[in-house]
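Run folding on both entries below.
>entry_1
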Amino acid sequence: MSDQDYTQEIIDFLGCECEVFRDLENDEQLIEKFNSYTEKGRTDGYIPVIILPSDILYEAFELALEDEGLDNTPGDIVKLRQSILTKADEVYVESFLADRLAEYGELHEGDDITGEFTEHEASHCFYSYYGCEGNKPAPVIILVKIPVKNPWEAAAWLPMGGFNDCPSPAQQVAVFRYWHAKYGAVPTVVTYDNWELELQKPPATPQTAEELAKEHFAFCYDRVMQGAQDRDTIRALAGELIHSTTWYFWWD
C-alpha cells in the first residue's frame, strides 16, 4: 500500500475534515495551522490532532474493528468509538496505574529505578512527526479536526494500542480524561506507536512532578526504561516533566 493509499484510508476511516501536508521543510506552517484550529475548535466543537499516517496505523484501526466483530463501514466505525468510550468508563485509572507501577517495580526489584531528582530543560514542542533523520517533518502528515468537545475522546477516534505494554484505546481514553482533569492535558500527536499531549497546568514542584513521573512510567514503561541516560529513572523523568507543556510517549 502506497503512502497515498493509506493516507486516504485513514482519512476515510475518520470521516471528518482533514488537511494533508506534504514535504514540509519545517513544522512552522503545521504548528501555525494547529494552533489556529485549537483556538477555533474551542467554540466550534472540535479538537485538532496531528497524525503521522502509516500502513501500521491503518492496520491498527482495522484490527480494532475486527476485535469488536465490526466491519469497516461508517456505521460500524461509530459503534467502535462508542464501545471504546463505554469500556473507558469501566477503567478506574488510579488503580490501573498503581497496578502497572507495582508490576514494573517487581520486575526491577533490586534496581534503583527511583533515582535522584535532577531538573532538565522543559519540553514545549512535538517530536513524533519528524522523520528518521530528525531534521525535517515526515513526508506526509495529516491534521484532522475531530468533532468532539472532550479531547480525551481522540483516542477512541484514533484507536492504536493494545500491543505489548501499550494500553488499549479504552485505557488511553480513561487516562487522558484523568490527566485532562489534573493538568489540562490534551492529545495532540499520534503515530502507530506514539502519543504526544499538550497541557495547560504542568507540575510546578519536584513532589508533584515525581507523582506524575510515576504515572508516566506506569502508562509507558519505555518512557523510563528506554529514556536517555540522564533521564532513565523516575525522578530524572520528573526533572524533565516539571514546567513542561508537552508530553511524549513511545511504545516499542
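>entry_2
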Amino acid sequence: STTVFYNVIEPYQTLQIDLQPPLSINRVLQDGKPLSFRKEGTNAYMIALEKQQQKGKSESVVVEYSGKPKVAKRAPWDGGFSWAKDKNGQHFVATSCQGLGSSVWWPCKDHMYDEADSMLISVTVPPNLMDVSNGRLRKTTVNSDSTRTFDWFVQNPINNYGVNVNIGNYVHFSDDFMGEKGKLTMDYYVLPENLEKAKKQFKQANDMMKAFEHWFGPYPFYEDSYKLVDAPHLGMEHQSATAYGNEYKMGYLGKDWSGSGEGLKWDFIIVHESGHEWFANSICTNDIADMWVHEGFTNYSETLFTEYYWGKAAGEKYVQGIQKNIGNDVPIIGSYGVNKEGSGDMYNKGANMLHLIRQLTKDDEKFRAMLIELNKDFYHKTVTTQQIENYISEKLNLNLTGIFNQYLRTIKVPLLEYKPEGRKVSYRWINVVDNVNLPIKVSFGKDEQWINPTTEWKKIKLGKWYDGKTLLVNKNFYVFSKNVLDSIPVKK
C-alpha cells in the first residue's frame, strides 16, 4: 500500500493516481472509508473523492494494490524489478525505473514536475536479508514470522524515479566526510564477497564528495546521508542510495569512454551517478524532454572531477575525448508533454556545450561560481530548460541564446570555413542558427587568438611568420573546420 498525502490546490473531487500493469489497484481509502475509482487508459486511475475537498487543506488517501510487478528486461535502461541471486544463492533484488516511471512498481502521481516532499519507505524481507532504500534507516522490526521490516525515511524532496528498493544479504561499513555543511554520513552496503574490494574502491566516494562540493557547493542531502549499494545492474542515481554495479573496476566496467586514458583513473559509476545528486535529484526537470539538465551537467562533472585531481589539461583531454561519441542524430531536447526524452547526445554533447560556454566565460572562477549559485538558487526545485538557460546567461553576462539553440535544438555543428590567401585568412560560419554569437580561439601557426566569425566572410591580416595555410581551432570548442580549398571537411 501507499499512503499519498496531497495539498488541495483547487477543490476538485477527482484524484488521479498512476499504476502500470500487471499491477492493479484493489482498494482506495480516505479517512478509513472505501472510495470508488475507475481506470482510464493503461496506467491512470481516477479516484472519486467523497469528502468535500477544501482549497488549502491537506488530505491523504491509502492506495492498496497487488500483482507481480514488471521484470526489468535490461536494467537500468529498461527497468522494473531485477530478480537475481548472489554467489551464495541468496536473493539479490533491486528496482530501477528512470524513463519508464516509478508507477511500474508503486502507485503515485507519476510526473517529474511534482516531487514528494518527504517519504517513508517500509519493506519486509526474509530473515536472512535486508532492504536498503533512500534516506536514513529509522528502525528495523522483527516480525512474528521472523521476517524483518526496514523503515527508511527521506527527509528531503525526492523525485519518483529516485525511489528504490535494494534487497540482499548485505554487510555494512561506513565513513564520515567533513564537508561544507558539517559531518556527512557515508554508508556502504555490499555483498559479503565484495567487502574487501569495496573498502578499497569506495574510498573514491570521499574524493568525489570533496571535488563536487568544490565545483557545485554542498551535497544536497546531508539530512538523508550518502550511500553506495551493491545492485544486480550497472547503477543508477537513486537519491542518497546510489545503486552500484561497476564490478569494482576503474572506468566504465574497465573501459574509458573518452579514449584518453583519463577515464581509467576513477570509477565511472561512483563519479557519474553521484554527480546526479546535484543534477537530477536536487535540480530536477519538470519534463523528461529537458533531461539534458540532468545528464549534460553530470557528464561534465566527470571532466571537473578529473580536473580537480589531475589538473586542467587532464580534464580538457577527457572532455575532448568524449566528442567522438557524439552522434548528432536528433536534437538533445525532446518532445514536451508526452514523456519523450531527446537524443543520447545530452550526455557528451551537453558536456561539451557547457565546456564551450566555460571558454566563452574566459574566467574559470566565474564559471565555478555560477555552478555553485545555480545549485543554491535551484536547490531542491524542479525546473525548465529555459530557466536554466536564462540563469546561466545572466550569471555569466553572456548572450548564449544562439549557443543553446544551436547545441540543444538542432543537430547542426558549427562549421568554420576558411581560405588562406597569402598572409591573409578569410573565415566565416556556416551550419549555424540565426544570430549565433560564437567567438572561438584559433591559431595561425603561432600563438592562439580570439576571432569572432559571423555568417559573412571576415578577413584577418597576419605577419610574415604565417605559413599561408595553417588554421587550427582550439579543441575545447566543439565545432568543425574546413579549408574551402580542400574538398574534404576536416574536424578541428
